[in-house]
Q: What sequence folds into this?
């Protein structure tokens, strides 16, 4: 039995009983935790806004077993704007689903927490930029130990020249002389950019101009690479894609 | 060792499937039913079967109904130029209790939730669009829940309805009547400020 005070980002929730919700939050101290938030579906509940997805808050959680209980909390940043724009909301849902899928419960990962918080902050300030999503994906994979090898051919170690491929199976770039399962052709510009996304400060990256080809290549690579590790397509991704192709 | 006779266990396991009912509550309900008359147990069973057999979706508004179209869609006094879109049939009851709304409804049977894999195709949005093409509406009021799923649904509807040239509005967010300002959270209070009215 313990009382934990920690910063948290709300990931999702599901209804429980008459007016409660089971909320999944990503906390700075304890990683992903699930807790019962009592009475938050009532309109008069003072904690209803606190448990809305994407909200950044300071929570006090009373935990007795695997399922804690939310005692009280304060909103630090509501990120309400993300819920008022469809693409922002779908993009933020994708980030949350990715973290939810790749991390187990109570696996404390402060690096992931900071990355998630900074990316949501960026979404709030400049909108859900494609580059910010790609950076998030790459850095999340890197923190969790799945960083793709981008410096040289992952099979023979040679420097790739004009033509390179990406293989999720091999875990990085392969040159045209080596073979690997499920090769995706990739331009050198995209490889360089992916390297920069892993190392440069997030805000500096926003000035980079992304052409259509690079955007397409990087999306294809990261989708394939994440799918290789998660083994199923994330639910929010298809909704996000449908919004992009949607022009009424 | 079996603690309960087979029919009792069967009833408990069926009741425990209902939302919000755990094994203990299922036991309590089972023994309550056993303590009552055979007639009241039969009435309960018949009520469940009758509701399940006779109730269907209204072909106009997608609400649950016994007669098709439902009484609200048939009522001549309702304003047919005003359409209120709600998430589920229970919301119609809440709206009707206000006594403020005289238009007609459309029930979506859910809300968009990307993280749960619920997209527009899983809701009754196609039926709504068909209604909008067929009938002449002046205004669509989106009365989905004030949470992230309800907002996403409202935004999606605005995106597809606005190009049709129909006025689309969202119910206001704000403070509950009888509430205390100092206990209001900053998001609700912020929304209440944005939606303030001149006195």
A:
């Amino acid at each position: 039995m313990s009382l934990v005070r920690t910063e948290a980002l709300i990931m999702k929730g599901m209804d429980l009983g008459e007016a409660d919700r089971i909320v999944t939050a990503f906390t700075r101290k304890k990683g992903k935790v699930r807790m019962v938030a009592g009475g938050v579906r009532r309109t008069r509940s003072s904690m209803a806004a606190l448990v809305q997805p994407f909200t950044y808050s300071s929570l006090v959680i009373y935990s007795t077993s695997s399922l804690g209980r939310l005692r009280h909390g304060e909103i630090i940043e509501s990120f309400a704007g993300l819920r008022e724009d469809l693409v922002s909301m779908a993009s933020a849902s994708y980030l949350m689903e990715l973290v939810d899928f790749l991390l187990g419960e109570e696996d404390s990962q402060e690096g992931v927490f900071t990355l998630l918080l900074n990316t949501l902050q960026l979404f709030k300030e400049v909108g859900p930029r494609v580059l910010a999503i790609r950076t998030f994906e790459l850095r999340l994979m890197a923190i969790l130990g799945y960083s793709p090898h981008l410096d040289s051919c992952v099979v023979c170690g040679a420097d790739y020249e004009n033509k390179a491929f990406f293989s999720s199976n091999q875990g990085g770039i392969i040159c045209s002389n080596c073979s690997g399962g499920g090769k995706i052709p990739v331009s050198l510009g995209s490889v360089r950019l992916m390297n920069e996304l892993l190392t440069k400060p997030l805000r500096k990256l926003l000035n980079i101009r992304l052409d259509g080809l690079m955007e397409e290549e990087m999306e294809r690579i990261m989708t394939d690479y994440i799918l290789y590790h998660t083994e199923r397509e994330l639910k929010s991704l298809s909704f996000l894609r449908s919004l992009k192709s949607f022009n009424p | 060792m079996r603690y309960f006779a087979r029919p009792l266990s069967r009833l408990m396991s069926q009741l425990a499937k209902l939302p919000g009912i755990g094994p203990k509550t299922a036991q309590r309900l089972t023994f309550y039913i056993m303590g009552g008359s055979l007639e009241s147990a039969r009435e309960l069973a018949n009520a469940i079967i009758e509701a399940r057999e006779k109730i269907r979706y209204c072909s106009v508004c997608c609400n649950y109904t016994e007669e098709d179209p439902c009484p609200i869609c048939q009522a001549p006094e309702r304003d047919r130029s005003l359409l209120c879109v709600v998430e589920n049939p229970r919301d119609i009851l809440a709206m009707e209790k206000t006594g403020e709304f005289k238009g007609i409804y459309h029930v979506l049977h859910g809300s968009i939730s990307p993280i749960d894999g619920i997209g527009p195709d899983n809701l009754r949005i196609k039926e709504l669009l068909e209604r909008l093409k067929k009938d002449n509406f002046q205004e669509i009021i989106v009365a989905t829940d004030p949470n992230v799923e309800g907002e996403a649904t409202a935004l999606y509807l605005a995106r597809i309805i606005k190009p049709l040239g129909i006025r689309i509005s969202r119910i206001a967010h704000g403070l509950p009547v009888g509430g205390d300002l100092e206990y209001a959270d900053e998001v609700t209070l912020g929304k209440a400020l944005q939606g303030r009215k001149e006195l």
In short: Chain B has two domains: 6-52, 78-198. Residues 3 and 9 of chain B are 9 Å apart (CA to CA). Strands of chain B lie at 56-57, 64-65, 82-86, 104-107, 139-142, 167-170.
